Amino acid sequence: MSTATGSAAPAPQIVTLDTTVVTSWKAPIAFAVFTLVALALAVFAPRHGDTTYRLNASERDAIQVPDLVVPAMPALWTVVVLLALITAYSAWLVRAKKRVPLWLIVVFAVLFLFGFLTWAGAGATLPMIGLLFGSLSLAVPLIFGSLAGVIGERVGVINIAIEGQLLAGAFTSAVVASVVASSTGSIWVGLFSGLVGAMVAGLLVGMVLAAFSIKYFVDQVIVGVVLNVLVTGLTSFFFSQVLAPNAGVLNSPPRFPRLPIPLLSDIPIIGPVFFRQTLIVYIMYIAVAAVYVGLFHTRWGLRVRAVGEHPQAADTVGINVNRTRFWNVALAGAIAGFGGTFFTIGSGIAFNKEMTAGAGFIALAAVIFGQWDPIKATLAALLFGFASNLQNTLSVIGSPVPSEFMLMLPYVVTIIAVAGLVGKVRGPAAAGKPYIKA
Amino acid sequence: MKLELRGITKRFGSLVANDHIDLTVEAGEIHCLLGENGAGKSTLMNVLYGLYQADEGEILLDDRVQHYTGPGDAMAAGIGMVHQHFMLIPVFTVAENVMLGHESTKGGGFLDLNDARARVREISARFGFDVDPDALVENLPVGVQQRVEIIKALSRDAKVLVFDEPTAVLTPQETDELMQIMRQLKEAGTSIVFITHKLREVREVADRITVIRLGRVVGEAAPTASNTELASLMVGRAVELTVQKDPPQLGDDALVVSGLTVIDHIGQLVVNDVSFEVRKGEILAIAGVQGNGQTELTEALVGLATRVRGSVVLDGVELMGQSVRKILSAGVGFVPEDRNEDGLVGEFTIAENLMLDRSDGEPFVKAASIQRAALADFAREKVAEFDVRTQGIDEKVGRLSGGNAQKVVLARELSRELRLLVAAQPTRGVDVGSIEFIHKRIVETRDAGVPVVVVSTELDEVAALADRIMVMYRGRVVGIVPGDTPRDVLGLMMAGEPAEGAAA
């Protein structure tokens, strides 16, 4: 043995194994199904006339973008042919043991969407700015919720209670803003008190989740579900017993006004969609950037991720795992609570029972679809927001698709996105596992 | 720095893991802590490192009593630890891992990665390591990961460095390099505590040896002590370190594996075109460093792997593509690598675990109900036959020690009519007494004319059991060599260099 000691140490090598491509027929099959759907629309339900895509926000804008007019049937047939070509190409790729690239999936989705919109909007005008603007608005609570989910899971606690935190935020902000605005007479004081109240409410829900799952090792999913039911029950109770009889004082929240940002809001298409929003949306832009930079470039983020990946390793370098988890889950709750304000003071709507309607769960789906990355999760949330608003827009312009069917759209997109496109991704290794020290 | 432990006692419920342990490590000394698995070595070191709080006793550094509440305090006091299971975050880079917990920042909490990189490079240069600060830890070979652990400890100015079973995951060559590093550290004045149960390493590097058994210090020894002396101190009685084994009575080829390839979910060929035969009455040992495809190979043999190619023929019958149920019925016995994960149900009793693979019919199940009486008789018989030390057959398996739990697995697998035995790491985490017993049973199985495949990362075990040795590296077979091949040849093969004249 000792003879080898003196010999030169071989340079350490990176372990690489021979690899092969694991191919899957998922993409070509999905492509084929959607191509057939488009074909069926063209054959069995042809619609004639032109589809107009309006790209202007209003007639008064400085820069006017001309409408895009597309003849419905020729466009649809072109799309069908292109979709068929992509399907064939993807099948060829899989047969040749190659992966179907992501950009092909995106191109396919955009083409299909274009074909479908053109068909559905035949003979009508599609307000594209309104569609996109509404998508962003509807995505606001989803984005805040998914930021809360990302922080929670990155630190190792699965935050199922996003729904409850949104609802608590919505309720509290409505009540606080109504009371403060009417007693002080200042709408802005009321609005900001509402924001703070919502964050405190979300924080409290987050703290309950943290306490039970971190200190008492209760299964995180179960605590989360129970909290959602609890918040739903509490807010519904207070709504019907207290808010409804005194709606004038307690439940007539002021509304955040839209604040167009000078210059930026004049950019065609982008301006009206992104920069004629409320303060809540602008704070959201900052929050997404802050969480992203924070997670990946600061000491806070490094420690959060360490605790969520390998809590014991974090412990051995002197990081208090459970304290880190507790405060970050609480922070996540506050962020989700802030997102809840969108439902009430963000839109100027009075609080109503169960008004979040599952947004927290869609946000959770966005976390996974977005691979635990704040920016990707935001994009996922935007996709879900788009699906929701598409359904609204199509029912307004009188789409031939039954509205009950269209109501499924956001959820169908969620299922396809999470089950079909995500596949195997790796989340934080210790998410969902309590850290129990001997 | 001089380290002194006085009367350290640590209890877990009624179990006394450390019983008034005294230990002194002088500055610049390599002090070996020798003891079996479960003797309390790791517990002691976790107390020293602040992960556990001692119930009694005190820790002194340079004659000053230390009080700390967590690993942070221990590190600040100058204690570093290279853990048995690396405390590295796989998805972080080397620099991120090294800086974690004492991050240098540019103000505002923003990480200063350049500073961390420089520190990694500086320490690497000092000890001649070749470590890229920006490499992801999960992509590094374990030997390099261990160096990252060392860098991590040194970057906090550790004066006392604890190595907890550091050689378990290394090739013999990497082990030699580690010994070299330890000597270098010692020259630089670092005190080293080296925890191990491998006698050879102790004798090679230690200045002093303390032996621990059942949570107590049972003696000190000089590095000149013989293996047998150390082993009997460690176990508390005379032990046979080698298994009595007659030359094999070889029969026909029984297991013929050809072109076996296993692909994991991201497309890596974790087992790459592996072919070998095992004859009746022969033990083929598969050697190699942990994680070179052995686990996946054994799983493929019993039908647990998905995405496999090639063929596995047992006594003329193709097993590839068959269900696990059919493969087991064909007479394949399987001792999985991780008994707690794959071999036993911890919350079930010994009796229930013994019938796990025979729940589909007689004699233990009639008319869909378990025949308690038949099962109890069977279980009692097996517990006696395999010398399982237990309160009774209704004790939960999770409460058994590693050695006894492994005997339950072995009892279950060997009590069927076998035509092939596959045993992966049969003595991992098992006390020396049980190792003797398990090795004896495996050799008996061979002598009964059953082909046996044993996977082991411990060269001692390979040498003790093998009639022939197959070495695997990165999913491929490096070579198949006779059972008496010298260790240094095997060591080179484990690092991927084929032996001269070895049949591939």
From TrEMBL, chain A:
GO terms for cellular component: plasma membrane. It is found in: Cell membrane. Its main location: membrane. InterPro entries: ABC_transp_permease. This is Simple sugar transport system permease protein. It comes from the Bacteria. The keyword Kinase does not apply.
UniProtKB/TrEMBL annotation, chain B:
It comes from Agromyces terreus. Keywords: ATP-binding, Cell membrane, Membrane, Nucleotide-binding, Repeat, Sugar transport, Translocase, Transport. GO terms for cellular component: plasma membrane. The keyword Cell inner membrane does not apply. Pfam families: ABC_tran. It is a peripheral membrane protein. Residues 3-239, 255-499 form the ABC transporter domain. CDD domains: ABC_Carb_Monos_I, ABC_Carb_Monos_II. GO terms for molecular function: ATP binding; ATP hydrolysis activity. PANTHER family: CARBOHYDRATE TRANSPORT ATP-BINDING PROTEIN MG119-RELATED, GUANOSINE IMPORT ATP-BINDING PROTEIN NUPO. SUPFAM superfamilies: P-loop containing nucleoside triphosphate hydrolases. This is Simple sugar transport system ATP-binding protein. It is found in: Cell membrane. It comes from the Bacteria.
